[in-house]
């Protein structure tokens, strides 16, 4: 990152990531959605807005009321959305080939409607964001991209895996490539991919799907040149997770490698500032920082929030105050990384680098051993997250338990037919097909969005991927 770009980022972070302005504005509840303020654009340079705010504090004896703050925001900020331009992908097709393979006419119409949504979700970042980055919370990327939509106006890391899968199905190879190149740009700039396209997401990443995204694209295009040009950056991202998110587990005297989501911070999420401060209000300062770290760690997992991370004395609870993702080693993240190592090994083989290919194959095999010996539970016939505080598997159904199947990370120690039978019997025991709307996110109703009765698209995907590929056989 150039010195100027990093200077601009520090300046804008003083407004949107921490500091007095963020605190006063977010706690005043001028906006119902805390994300609104941090997505606004500064009308004037940071120093001028800061001076204006100091003046406001002076004249109000450090006690500006809601109306004062509303006027200050109106005077100094433009509404969210500035800095993005709607973008209709050039390669969008009204009727891609897959539509004609759908026999049911209702489903065919539905697929046509879905395919049309690409034209609504394309965004490019305006040139002004590159020129005047110290006025925007957006992270500049060079190519247009597809956003999740609604209040999510920017790109999100793990959402992009399914977006790219869909783009390839819709034969939008160029748009998929643009998104991949943006992520390559971000890894080169930061060494990792942030949670989403805003400076307030820079403290954390999201489930590491860059290598699987590249694999989807490679399988669709067989573009060896692209692999050759970007393999070093893919390795760089892999090393970020190895260096910053790995953990060792000792079981029966043997040391195993696994991976955790992990964020250390001393502040609330800027985009949910009010909510986080409220939840932490009765805690001491030290406990507050630990709690904020747990909140951001859970957000890095993509599962924000879920009973999956609510733990007290080794049991899952329904209480947010028991939020402890740091106590768990998630089977899903460890599976994604095993899959990434295996895919890097495949890529190096394609590029005729056998040494590197063997190196990554060995890493994948080591991680598979963890999945097979630490996460697998013979009594239940299922993989589970591992509780490192209690040294035990943390039982309970979450579709993420099935991730070793998607990742083919179950190792060689158990026959795959035996594993499949155990899993079918487990899913039958918990009556998994009896829930309306598909496979639920959990069997615990905590009123959090990543819990019963909700079902999330990525989780349906992982479960159905396996069911359609293997269960039928
Ligand atoms: O604004 C609150 C949180 O919003 C995001 O999380 C949710 O939406 C994302 C975009 O679709 C999705 O990737 C994530 O799995 C959802 O839980 C954001 O990622 C969080 O960091 C943020 O705090």
Automatic annotation (TrEMBL):
This is Trehalase. Pfam families: Trehalase (PF01204). It comes from the Eukaryota. GO terms for biological process: trehalose catabolic process. GO terms for molecular function: alpha,alpha-trehalase activity. Gene3D superfamilies: 1.50.10.10. It catalyses: alpha,alpha-trehalose + H2O = alpha-D-glucose + beta-D-glucose.
């Amino acid at each position: 990152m150039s010195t100027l770009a990093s200077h601009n980022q520090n300046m804008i972070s003083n407004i949107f990531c921490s500091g007095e302005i963020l605190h006063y504005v977010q706690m005043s509840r001028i906006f119902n959605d805390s994300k609104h303020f941090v997505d606004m654009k500064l009308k004037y340079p940071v120093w001028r807005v800061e001076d204006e705010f100091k003046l406001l504090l002076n004249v109000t004896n450090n006690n500006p009321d809601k109306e004062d703050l509303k006027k200050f925001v109106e005077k100094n900020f433009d509404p969210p959305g500035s800095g993005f331009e709607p973008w209709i992908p050039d390669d969008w097709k009204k009727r891609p080939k897959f539509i004609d393979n759908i026999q049911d006419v209702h489903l065919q119409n539905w697929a046509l409607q879905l395919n049309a949504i690409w034209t609504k979700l394309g965004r490019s970042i305006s040139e002004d964001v590159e020129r005047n980055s110290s006025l925007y919370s957006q992270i500049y990327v060079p190519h247009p991209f597809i956003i999740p939509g609604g209040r999510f106006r920017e790109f999100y890391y793990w959402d992009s895996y399914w977006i790219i899968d869909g783009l390839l199905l819709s034969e939008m190879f160029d748009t998929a490539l643009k998104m991949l190149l943006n992520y390559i740009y971000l890894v080169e700039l930061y060494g990792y991919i942030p949670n989403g396209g805003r400076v307030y997401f820079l403290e954390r990443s999201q489930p590491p799907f860059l290598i699987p995204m590249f694999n989807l694209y490679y399988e669709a295009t067989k573009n060896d040149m692209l692999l050759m040009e970007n393999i070093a950056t893919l390795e760089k991202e892999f090393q970020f997770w190895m260096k910053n998110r790995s953990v060792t587990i000792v079981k029966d005297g043997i040391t195993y490698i696994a991976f955790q989501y992990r964020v250390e911070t001393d502040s609330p999420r800027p985009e949910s500032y009010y909510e986080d401060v409220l939840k932490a209000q009765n805690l001491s300062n030290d406990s507050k920082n630990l709690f904020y770290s747990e909140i951001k760690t859970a957000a890095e997992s993509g599962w924000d929030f879920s009973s999956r991370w609510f733990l007290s004395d080794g049991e899952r609870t329904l209480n947010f105050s028991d939020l402890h993702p740091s106590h768990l080693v998630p089977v899903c993240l460890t599976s994604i990384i095993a899959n990434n190592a295996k895919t890097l090994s495949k890529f190096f083989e394609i590029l005729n680098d056998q040494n590197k290919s063997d190196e990554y194959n060995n890493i994948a095999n080591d991680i598979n051993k963890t999945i097979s010996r630490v996460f697998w539970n013979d009594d239940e016939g299922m993989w589970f997250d591992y509780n490192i505080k209690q040294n035990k598997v943390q039982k309970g159904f979450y579709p993420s338990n099935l991730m070793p199947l998607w990742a083919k990370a179950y190792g060689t120690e158990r026959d795959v037919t035996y594993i499949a039978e155990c899993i079918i019997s487990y899913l039958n025991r918990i009556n998994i097909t009896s829930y309306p709307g598909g496979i639920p996110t959990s069997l615990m109703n905590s009123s959090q969005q990543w819990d019963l009765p909700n079902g999330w698209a990525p989780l349906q995907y992982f479960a159905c991927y396996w069911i359609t590929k293997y269960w039928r056989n």
